[in-house]
Amino acid sequence: MTTGHDTTAASPSTEGGAAPGRPPGDAAAVEKERRHRARLSRRWQRDVRWSPYAFVSPFFLLFVAFGLFPLVYTGWASLHKVELTAPTDMDWVGLRNYTRIFDDEFFWNAAQNTLTIGIISTVPQLLMAMGLAHILNYKLRGSTFYRVAMLAPYATSIAAASLVFVLLFGRDYGMINWALGLVGVDNIDWQNETWASQIAVSTIVIWRWTGYNALIYLAAMQAIPQDLYESAALDGANRWQQFFHVTLPSLRPTILFTTVVSTIGASQLFGEPLLFDANKGASGGSQHQFQTLGLYLYEQGWVNQHLGRASAIAWTMFLILILIGIVNYVISRRLRASS
Amino acid sequence: MTTTLTPPDPDQAEKAPQRSRRPRAARAGGQMHAGPVAYVVLALFTIGSLFPLVWTAIAASRDNNRLAQTPPPFWFGANLFDNLELAWTDANLGEAFLNTTIVAGISAATIVFLSTIAGFAFAKLRFKGRGALMLIVIGTMMVPPQLSVIPLYMMVAKLDWTDQLQAVIFPSLVSAFGVFFMRQYLIQALPDEIIEAARMDGASSWRVVWHVVFPAARPAMAVLGMLMFVQTWNDFLWPFLVLTQTGNPTVQVAVAGLGRGYTPDQSLIMAGALLGTLPLLVVFAIFGKQIVGGIMQGAVKG
């Protein structure tokens, strides 16, 4: 790199002499060396100045092309009537797509299902992950084995996991109903009853993500300085008090992070309800029992072929997420201020 | 939760005399040994994690009729290889495996490269707008991918890329998580002095990246590569939308097709699910420790 030719020539030097005490014959060489240095240093400065941008620009270019532009364009498309059969023909309809989905009982049904499934999958998942992380934080024999085993569901795809759980949750011959039968519970129709099907879909999510979240909590727990516990112990705090007064407050940013990530994940739930459906449709059960917003978006866009309406659903989901984010932020600020 | 933990073992004070002087409670938080109840809880969770996977193999090894009986089978039958072979040909899994390997390989390699140079810039270089740009990177992690799906689909349709692998590859070439992850790693793994020394010797930025950053980041690059490979391999929504089962399916699209093709043969579906998951489980069995370390590494705030 240092040998490369520089197009901007070094400015001619105005000062003449070499350093005193040097033989006069060296003056030209020194001057040449000095110019070379000056050129290099200019190159170097330019390199230092611009290379950070060169390093981060591929990410941003690709993000603009495949993240930001689609985001904005979805908003634009949501104001048009666009059909899947001719995605380039767009007729301006203003906010009609939005008013239509707000009048659509299936949209509200999907929104409610998404909320319910989101809560019954995220809350137990994060609570169990916290408990697991707490146990894993003790000195354990074979701790690596438990960590890897708990992460194995994360390596399983949505497709494979959902298909397996369809069988496990089978009404007549499923293992879960068989096990429940042993304790005297009648067969539950996991794919058709509203609550049962929503619990079943949540189970797939919980199964796949609990271990992953436990590892994230564990990492945060291990970063808590030990002397916090020691001083709490000296103040007479027992282990429960230590957990509530040292561990939980220290984990607050991590808990916020996992809550946000899980909320986003829950709002996008798509593959699990799609594949859990016995009718092989996109309606989330014969009576839309577990149709999520993600599935409803797919049904509107790709089954009913209304891409404009699907865009409006996507943007509504986005706005709801932003709202949740703001609420989250306000609550965490309040909590911080009060403590 | 914590209620399942037993009090510390009374013998422990004898085993570790140097600790017995401190108050017992002071040994909480990573130092105390777990009691038997903790092991029971861990065992239950481990069984819960692994059982559905093991049972996939059991169901795949059975005759379809046996799966429609109570009690369900708990042990392996004789049909495993027949079912695997049938699923392999039925779902065209050979081609799907090749497709998925190409997609996941290209995505993971590109993500690792781009994340390392961007993460290096965010971790170690000073430049105007660094904080704001990093905030944007983190912000992009919050944008749901479903928002981009519709225009992406329009773009792909316009480019005539439907059913082509590049339709899946291009949108998956960047990962905000990757940038964040490499930044976290490089902040602590790469001392400023080494970069300064290389700079003193007149190395250009690319030379620094090549000869200093890449060697220092290699462990994190390996972990990120595996994580991204797993993620791309398992990706479902977008491949499901742009690829059909007949044109260049990925493994997940092909496996989902088994379940959605009105195939009554459950053992066949399970065989497909098993095949779709197996390569990643093997990777996990070998590199599980590194992957666990990598996830925990990426989780800690810097």
TrEMBL record, chain A:
Subcellular location(s) per record: Cell membrane
Start and end residues of each stretch annotated as Disordered: 1-29
GO terms of biological process kind: transmembrane transport
Pfam families (UniProt xref): BPD_transp_1
Span of the signal peptide: none
PROSITE patterns membership: ABC_TM1
InterPro entries hit by this protein: ABC_transporter_permease, MetI-like, MetI-like_sf
Transport as UniProt keyword: yes
UniProt entry keywords in alphabetical sequence: Cell membrane, Membrane, Transmembrane, Transmembrane helix, Transport
Any one GO cellular component localisation term in the record: plasma membrane
TM spans (from-to): 50-73, 115-136, 148-170, 312-331
Main location group: membrane
Topology in membrane: Multi-pass membrane protein
Keyword hit for Kinase: no
Domain named ABC transmembrane type-1: residues: 111-328
Biased composition (Polar residues): 1-14
PANTHER family from the UniProt entry: ABC TRANSPORTER PERMEASE PROTEIN (PTHR30193), INNER MEMBRANE ABC TRANSPORTER PERMEASE PROTEIN YCJO (PTHR30193:SF37)
Family label: Belongs to the binding-protein-dependent transport system permease family.
Protein name: Cellobiose transport permease
Organism of origin: Streptomyces glaucescens
UniProtKB/TrEMBL annotation, chain B:
Residues passing through the membrane, by range: 37-58, 102-123, 135-156, 168-187, 208-230, 268-287
Record's subcellular location: Cell membrane
Membrane disposition: Multi-pass membrane protein
GO terms for biological process, alphabetical: transmembrane transport
Domain of life: Bacteria
PANTHER family: ABC TRANSPORTER PERMEASE PROTEIN MG189-RELATED, ABC TRANSPORTER PERMEASE PROTEIN MG189-RELATED-RELATED
Keyword terms: Cell membrane, Membrane, Transmembrane, Transmembrane helix, Transport
Protein name as it appears in the record: Cellobiose transport permease
Pfam families associated with the record: BPD_transp_1
Main location: membrane
Domain ABC transmembrane type-1: 97-287
Residue ranges the record marks as coiled coil: none
GO cellular component assignments: plasma membrane
Keyword Transmembrane helix appears in the UniProt entry: yes
Family: Belongs to the binding-protein-dependent transport system permease family.
Keyword DNA damage: no
Organism of this sequence: Streptomyces glaucescens
Annotated region (Disordered), positions in chain: 1-29
